[in-house]
Each structure stands twice: as C-alpha cells, then as structure tokens.
Design a protein that fits this description.
eight-stranded antiparallel beta sheet, 8 helices, Elongation Factor Tu (Ef-tu), domain 3, about 450 residues, about 30% strand, 3 domains, Rossmann fold, alpha+beta, six-stranded mixed beta sheet
Amino acid sequence: MSTITTEDLAATTLLRFATAGSVDDGKSTLVGRLLHDSKSVLTDQLEAVEHASRNRGQEAPDLALLTDGLRAEREQGITIDVAYRYFATPRRRFILADTPGHVQYTRNMVTGASTAELAVVLVDARNGVVEQTRRHAAVAALLRVPHVVLAVNKMDLVDYEETVFAKIAEEFTAYAGELGVPEITAIPISALAGDNVVDASANMDWYGGPTVLEHLETVAVSHDLAHCHARLPVQVVIRPQTAELPDYRGYAGQIAAGTFRVGDPVTVLPSGKTSKISGIDLLGKPVDVAWTPQSVTLLLEDDIDISRGDLIVPTPDAPTATQDIEATVCHVADQALTVGHRVLLKHGTRTVKAIVKDIPSRLTLDDLSLHPHPGQLVANDIGRVKIRTAEPLPVDAYADSRRTGSFILIDPNDGTTLTAGMVGESFAAPEPVKTEADDEGWDF
C-alpha cells in the first residue's frame, strides 16, 4: 500500500482566487506573469501571444493577452469579461478569476469573488487607493472572502520606494479592517518586470515578505464545506419508469454544503415533510456517503411530493422557512432598484415572486458611512434591503453558508439580473422606515 506524503496532500489542495482593481492597474499582466513564470503556459499559447504582441508593435510579449480572451478585449487592451484560468504548481492547484476594472463591470467582480477564498486587489503605486479600490474591498468583505492580498503594482514606476508602498498599505489595511476583512497581506510588485510575483525582487531588498505565488501556495485554505450544514437544492426529479427500475424515484442536484449519508433523517423544505435517505447514487453507482460539491441523486424511504426548487436538509439542523428576508446587496444593473419594486428572487434552484419592501440604507464608500433610506439603489451601489417573498424560502445566514445564504434579484420582464444579495450581512444599518408597497397583481 502506497503512503500519502505531505507533498501529495499539498498538491491536492485547491485555491480559488480572484483578481480585482481599477482600470489599468495591471490585473491581466499579473495573471499572465503568474502563468508564464510558473511554467503554466503551453508553447503554442505563448507563441500566439508573441505573434499578437508583434502585430501591435510591441517588442516583448504582452502577458495580459494570456487572459484577455475576448476579441474586443484584445483590440481595446482592456478586460471586459471574467476570465477563468486553471494552473498548478507542485504545491497547490489554482482556479483564478481575472475580473474587469471598469466601474460598469463591478458586477463581474461580484461573480468572480463569490466562490473565491482569496482576492488579490491591485493598486497602481502612482495612484494609490482610489474609489474602485474601496469598492472592491467592500465587495470582498461582503462576500466574506477570508483572505485579501493588496498587490501594490508598478513599483518600478516609483523607483521601488518603500515609503510609497508603506503609505498605500497603511491606508488600505485601515479601510479594509473597518469593513471586517479578516486577513490582509500587502506585497509590493511589478507585474511587468516580474518583481515579487513568482521570484523575489532584487530591487526591493527592504521587503522581507512572500512573493505573490509563495503566498498563494501557502495561505491556509479552510473552505471545508463538507462540515457545514448539509443542503441539497433539488435540480430535477428522476423517474425512469423502465422495466428494470419501475419504482425508481430520485431527487438529483449538486450538494451545496455538508455531507449526506444513507440512513440520515431529512426534511424537505418548504413543505416540512420528513423521511430518511434510503440510498445515494453517484455517477450511476450506489454509495453510502456523499459530500459537497458532488452531484448526486438521493432516494428516500417515503413517497413525498418533491419538485425542482425544494431543499433537502438534515432534520436536526433544518433552517426556518421565511417570507421576510433582510440582506445586504450589491446592485449590478443599470436599472435602479426601488422601494416597491416587483422582482423575482432566485435562491438555489427555486425562483419566487418578491417585492422590495424597504431600502434602509446605502453604504458610502468614501468614509463607510450609511446614507439612511435612499429610496433606491443604482448600479454598483451597496445597500441594505428588506424583501417580502410570495412563498416561504429556507434561507441560511450568509455567514453560515455562502451558497444557501445568497440570492439574486431578477427583472420579471426581461430576465435581467438586478442585484446580488447576502442574507443577514449588515453594515449596522439604521432602523427602517415602514413603507407600504403597492402589491396589486402580486397577491401575497
């Protein structure tokens, strides 16, 4: 029997991280440098980048092109979409999300950071902390990203001055600390020159901390969702009704959190019906136990009316279904979100009608003050909302489960995603003013 070494275990760990920052701070160049210097770029990819760079009149390869995959991005020299990339080193595997810096694409940063355990926030050493830097720090705090790296980029353009780095690091650390970011690591880098990205910089001997890659390889990954409250949003009910399986009825979906075992007592929400797990099918084979993020089919002892959108949970720690949800949200649409707004709320695999009953506050990014009762949220605003749903929803607090404690609001007219919400998250908003929304046509 072979022995699993510490190195083997390290190589099996996965870190999901996102990059964020203002326009032209060098996010794509940093990611390209990580891929290039860690030998994670295929020869044909590098040749394509070199060819594209020569066509643009550049002598050296533009490593940002390794992540700017859309044609419009390459032509404009900017990042528009979230670019997901996979790479690995002998110590760890990585999935990174390179997100845009433009204000109008902040919604993409929300998407990229929603599943991340670490966020790399870039700052141009010449400009320091700007509004978009503060916005990205706030989003990372709201999404409870446990680790934040402040990468002070373009240090070569400020003569690698320690005082410039120290001032930016102090300002950002104080700001992010007030937001509640639990861990902040500041690293001075030059993504273009490669200083402190993969290899230590000879130009900044005053810095004794890790390079970006060293930190990514060694940061503690504690996102073990298998030990959270077990949750299975039902995606589809499987009834083959074949001669071999005449009575088969399974409830399939991806386990959002936790672990399920055969014999566990479970509750189906929102109906509240109870049963026991009689079987678990994984990849067409029966198993005794399954955990997140596996996609499985659960079989129950009792014949219960279950459909897409229901949530199967262990009976001992079933969440309470509610029609009144209070959350902090990041509004991502150009269309404003207003008090009385009729929306669709999507939670897991379930979508229900809802009404925005109140907007108690909006966060002011400059000084983290709360603007009480703004009446609406516009694109990129972060604020507190109270929502009434047409049907009870079994929501968890976002602090307990990022998957079942989150939701999105959708425009019922055209399907546009309006808002991303985190249940229970708060910036200590003031007491709300009671308002009466017009519920005509939405009777609940």
